[in-house]
Specification:
- By secondary structure, the chain is of the alpha+beta class.
- It has two domains: 4-165, ph1033 like fold; 207-330, Trna Endonuclease, Chain: A, domain 1, CATH 3.40.1350.10.
- It is 40% helix and 19% strand.
- It has eleven helices and twelve strands.
- The protein has helices spanning 16-21, 41-51, 57-73, 128-134, 145-157, 169-203, 207-220, 265-273, 291-298, 309-319, 325-330, and strands at residues 4-7, 24-27, 79-84, 89-95, 100-101, 111-122, 140-142, 224-227, 238-241, 251-257, 279-285, 304-307.
- Strands 1, 2, 3, 4, 5, 6 and 7 form a seven-stranded mixed sheet that branches. Strands 8-9-10-11-12 form a five-stranded mixed sheet, sandwiched between helices.
- It is elongated, with a radius of gyration of 28 Å.
Length: 340
């Protein structure tokens, strides 16, 4: 099976009519000039660094990979799709040219591939998993074989929402239930990935920033906090209480360890030894805790909570709406809405 690629027609598909009328797809990055002679991905990365000095390393890697695909991995007779959100239609075409550098042929996009458009597929007839794959925001993606087969089947049969053959009610209900299950799996996958990305952000904080984050979480929970000045703190990195002075209970004492290794029972005993009646302890460790440390915390006479990276990320998302601006700056997040 030939490869199939999705090429987006710019933001909100503003180039879709030019793609259709000029029988071509195109990408930007005009400052690169003619890149037909660029033969390796590393060479493409080096060129991007020179021509786009404001790009960070991660963006260099992602962008270079997409451009290199367009120039070198796209082959004649491969299929290309692009999406028109106004019509909710995917246009499917077949590549008929090698890479060309043609400034002003398609607005803002000088790197082009000519093709013949062969048909369309309504997004509304695709399965949830196919829609999820095609919903990527990348300029270029490779289409998996199973999604490619589904697109070609729908293009050949020409089914759209208005002319699908009637089905028994039981069949429609089964398909609806199956799609609901697929959407739930996709949602769980998105949530899991977002949690991992949040943990990545937290792990990159330095020790001072980690203290600020934990203090910010406590403020989001309604406490007033004080961070100990640098120097010997006797296991008291953060102090929190309802009034900020410790006159009202609970008095919360927090120790923050920003290390890769797990904290053991000795560290927990040392921490709890400095607590007194009326205190509540929180021990934060990016590297987690050993089994012995957890047992030590459970048998402590002073109430003690152990917070590892997983729980810290959970607290961030739980109390993010109550964070002050300084805490949000440490972990900038954007709320995503999901259909019920």
């Amino acid at each position: 099976m030939k490869s199939m690629w999705l090429v987006r027609a710019g933001e909100r598909a503003y180039l879709i009519n030019e793609f259709k009328e000029k029988q071509a797809v195109a990408i930007g990055w005009a400052q690169l000039g003619d890149i037909g002679a660029v033969s390796t991905l590393q060479e493409m990365k080096r060129l991007l660094k020179v021509r786009y000095p404001g790009y960070k390393e991660g963006k260099i890697n992602i962008t270079a990979g997409q451009i290199f695909r367009f120039v070198s991995e796209f082959k004649i007779d491969d299929q290309v799709i692009t999406y028109n959100p106004e019509e909710r239609l995917y246009y499917i075409g077949r590549i008929k040219s090698n890479y060309e550098f043609k400034p002003n042929y398609i607005t803002d996009k000088p790197h082009i591939r000519r093709l013949d458009w062969e048909g369309t597929v309504s997004r509304d007839v695709l399965t949830a998993s196919a829609r999820n794959t095609l919903g990527s925001i990348m300029t270029i993606i490779s289409i998996p074989n199973e999604v490619q087969k589904e697109l070609l089947k729908q293009m050949v049969t020409g089914q759209t929402e208005g002319n699908q053959p009637s089905q028994p009610i039981e069949s429609v209900q089964a398909e609806t239930e199956e799609e609901a299950e697929e959407l739930e799996l996709i949602k769980e996958d998105v949530i899991e990935k977002s949690n991992e990305f949040i943990k990545d952000k937290i792990a990159k904080l330095d020790w001072d920033q980690m203290q600020e984050l934990v203090a910010g979480i406590l403020r989001g929970m309604g406490y007033k906090t004080r961070i100990s000045p640098k120097g010997p703190d006797r296991g008291r990195d953060i102090f929190a209480s309802p009034d900020g002075l410790g006159l009202e209970e609970p008095r919360i004492i927090v120790e923050v360890k920003h290390r890769l290794g797990s904290m053991g029972s000795n560290e927990i005993r040392s921490f709890t030894g400095g607590l007194r009646v009326g205190d509540r302890g929180i021990y934060v460790s990016k590297g987690g805790f050993t089994k012995e440390a957890k047992y030590e915390a459970e048998r402590s006479n002073i109430p003690l909570s152990l917070i590892d990276l997983d729980l810290l990320a959970e607290l961030v998302t739980q109390y993010y709406d109550q964070f002050d601006s300084e805490t949000r700056t440490l972990i900038p997040l954007r709320k995503i809405y999901w259909p019920l």
